[in-house]
Amino acid sequence: MSKKPNILFFFTDDQRFDTIRALGNTDVQTPVLDRLVAEGTTFTHAHIPGGTSGAICMPSRAMLHTGRTLFHLDGAGQGIPNDHVMLGEHLQANGYRTWGTGKWHNGPASFARSFSDGAEIFFGGMDDHWNVPAFNYDPTGKYDSVLLQCPTPNQSNALKIRRGDHVTAGKHSSELFAEGAIDWLEKYDTDNPFFMYISFMAPHDPRTMPQKYLDMYDPEDTPLPENFMGGHPFDNGDLKVRDEVLEDFPRDPYKVRQHIAEYYAMITHLDAQMGRVLDTISACGMADNTIVVFAGDNGLAVGQHGLFGKQNMYEHSVRVPLIFSGPGVPAGQKRSAYVYLHDIFPTLCDLIGTNTPDSVEGTSLVSALNNGNEQVRDTLFSAYREWQRMVKDNRFKLIEYAVNGRRTTQLFDLENDPLELHNLADDKAHASKVADLRETLFQWRDDWDDAKSEWGKTFWEAF
User: Fold this and answer.
1) Which of 49, 86, 228, 405 is the most exposed, having the fewest neighbouring CB atoms within 10 Å of its CB?
2) Per the CATH hierarchy, to which homologous superfamily does domain 6-370 belong?
3) Counting Cβ atoms within 10 Å, is residue 22 exposed (0-12), middle (13-18) or buried (19+)?
């Protein structure tokens, strides 16, 4: 019996779906991701189901690692119950060595269940990219050490407690995690297949990177998005969330271009670090038997619709990149099927020939990988806390808001208005489409137990 394929999983933080040059964005340089696009299959309409916390990444990562839907998590994903089988846990049970590095936002206990080894583990949402408080792998799974840091010595001598057992001062997080992976790969000498999970903190702010990458992007030459606005046209429920106060309202066009330039620079830098890991896989003779997955945890507005964050239902925030390459994956293909991050778990199970745990609710994408006409879902749903709900079919998107006793409805024709600039909800010609999509929204609500959740109860009572 031949050895099962290795799995190398790159996961990035706040990387929007349209930040890969090979997929049409000529303003950003991503040679390594371009290579993955050429060598594998890209799902151009991968989505997140939304979030139940301003830190969208926390439930998003919980869904990725459990294959479960948004309202079937434990809370917002701070921890993972033992009866929710995790991807790394399942792979270990099927003979894999599992190794993890980088950002882990779902608690130490779930990391310990998922990985048999690791390095440079960061338990948190974000931090200084050049001074990451990290843990070495702890076989006990406790990860209970703390560090005292003075984050603003020029302003205050106040100390903050950081979880970690060391800091590699002056080493950028993207390089830190990549080099941990490279070191482990170069020493790997067992016959077991491996699952390597590299979870970058980039391109999440604070957006810092080596100067040579920043020099590649001049804000003066960086175009504003066509759907740039000085502010959002109405209260969406969370306009004071942390991401939205990074810049003042009204948004300044030059500052937005500056943010976008820094965003792209971080992406190009982490792209280079992924290249170093892939080069090591090749040098170690593992490339032909390694499935590579690349995905992001959520999108980001960075000035679109007057927003900076991901706490909304627009395309720039709910769509994420998703690429598969390696054995069993067609090369140079694109798929437009509607898929979710929590579909990755069952897809990998099928690709390596194992069963899928009963607790997993996602849908395997193997059929869609092999058949360009395969439509995984006719419609798709997403939600944000107690304020926003979205459903879309193959052309139209409906967003419903319930904020402080006020309801707002948006309807967008994504085929003719992909930037979501023209709200058709009050157009009598589209009244039947609004009604139809509302019925679809109710069906998703019931199927996913939205109304039984603490967030859904509030939204649907107001709705």
Assistant:
1) 405
2) Alkaline Phosphatase, subunit A (3.40.720.10)
3) middle
Q: Region 301-314: what's the mean pLDDT?
A: 98
**pTM of the full predicted structure?**
0.97
Mean pLDDT across 131-152: 91
- Distance, CA of 8 to CA of 351 (rounded, Å): 13
Each domain of the chain, given as residue ranges in start order, spans 6-370, 380-462
104 forms bridges with which residues in the sheet? 123
Q: Which fold has domain 380-462?
A: Arylsulfatase, C-terminal domain (3.30.1120)
pLDDT at 181 > cutoff 90: yes
- Average pLDDT in the 235-262 region? 97
pLDDT value of residue 2? 60
Residues 197/99, Cβ–Cβ less than 8 Å: yes
Lowest-confidence segment of 159-168, 193-202, 221-230, 263-272 by average pLDDT: 159-168
Mean confidence (pLDDT) of the chain: 97
- pLDDT one-digit tens code per residue, 352-383: 999 999 999 999 999 999 998 899 999 999 99
Amino acid 363: pLDDT: 98
Q: Which amino acid makes up residue 46?
A: A
CB 167 within 8 A of CB 133: yes
